[in-house]
Fold:
Amino acid sequence: MLADRSSGILLHPTSLPSRGGIGDFGPAAYDFVDWLAAAKQTLWQILPLQPVGAGNSPYSSTSAFAGNVLMISLERLADWGLLDRDQAGDFPDEDTLVDFERVRDYKLPQLHQAAANFRHFASQPARQRYDAFCRNNDWWLEDYVLFSVLRDRFDEQAWNTWPREIARRDPGTIAELRDELHEELEAARFMQFAFFTQWGDLRAYCADRGIRIIGDVSIFVSYDSADVWTHPALFRLKNDLSPVVVSGVPPDAFSETGQRWGNPLYDWDALKARGYDWWIGRMRWAVETCDIVRIDHFRGFEAYWEIPAKEPTAVHGRWVQGPNETFFQALRGALGKLPFIAEDLGYITREVHDLRKALGIPGMKILQFGFGNKGAHIYLPHRYEPDCVVYTGTHDNDTIVGWWNAIATDEEKDLASNYLNIGEDGVHWAFIRAALTSVANWCVIPVQDVLGLDSSARMNVPSEVTGSWTWRLQAGVLAPELAAKMAALVEITDRDGGIQQPSVQREQSSGEAGKHFTAQQRLAAG
Structure:
């Protein structure tokens, strides 16, 4: 899959310095893509785009398919004539962190207003495009919008606490709810339409500049999700619909009790009997909305840690065989090529490596991991093979500067100093140069490391329940000089082979979306 030497940046859209308290698909996103192009980067890696659930984590979502509507740009909706432009960006950004609750209170009423304006003022072509979106995606959209509206009605309580006939999806009750909640469901559909329209426009802008999007799919889904509510037979649940067993990882050097993630585990026999149809739909959607897909916790397809749901920690679990190669054969039969990257970090056995290699899926190398002991040298460039993706760190790690200042031992610093050429421009640039000059065909650098930021810019601390996922980029810090430095490194390390020149102007980036409304309708909607 990694036929060309490429370089890219890891930055989740919520971290963009957009107006409105959270990163979105508006002007700041296009500015970032322009910077990527100037820096000769051909990859943009993101985290899952789905609606966030517990702890505002994109890996704990209420849907495996829907988009996080907080990323919808109000400014773009104003371009469509659905909002007053003065109201589309008046959120007072008092700090650089995302305050999710505050952002919801600010954006959701405006999104509902935009939905109402669309319902009343959309032109016939706009309505036809919306109808086509709903028709083409009804296989996930209809269940999700009902779930999300009901979740609001029941104060975001888990679906198994809802009235029995709703929790168990009594057909008559569900039909009545669809009629009763017609307007709310229309608003929820519109928001998904707006999300994927804006995301599609941004992807087209990236593609025109030779930039591919690396998306992210977590193996497990949240219990409190439209997926489990809609398809309980695909998960190992009790008669009362609570989980029998849950996900996690066993104790290790970092945690005496392991990690109890709590996701319900799949009934792989049931999925196999259905030809893995739910998973095929999920991965088809993933590769339709991104160019490449990183599979989080890839090792779970070979074997996963099963924890009885009654256990408070991950200690008393066991390894259980996953679906292995038969699952991926089904995916390949349905999708053809598998443009995947395997997140193969942590406790990885020979069987996991053999599965990844048999499938021809590249794994990940994390430079920051390479200096702990001799066994960690598999993460250093002299041990790489070309068919891998090297990172200085990931969203789950501290930044390089943060690691160096607060985490690395004296021994690790000595080893890193002996291995790397740490110059006056800082330890982060030494790591970036080592990654770019390695034989790994693909290289991805978190934007925090390009900027040399400390631990305050960390995106996630896996052991912390709150406080993660809030970091945002400050406007203007990605300067032209920084792009030029990255571009020079890309050129000398032969990672610029696939770059294309733009063929359209920036102001055309809104594509067909900007044609949704006539001038009269724009005025009326405003």
Remarks:
- The first strand starts at residue 6 and ends at 10.
- The longest helix spans residues 182-208.
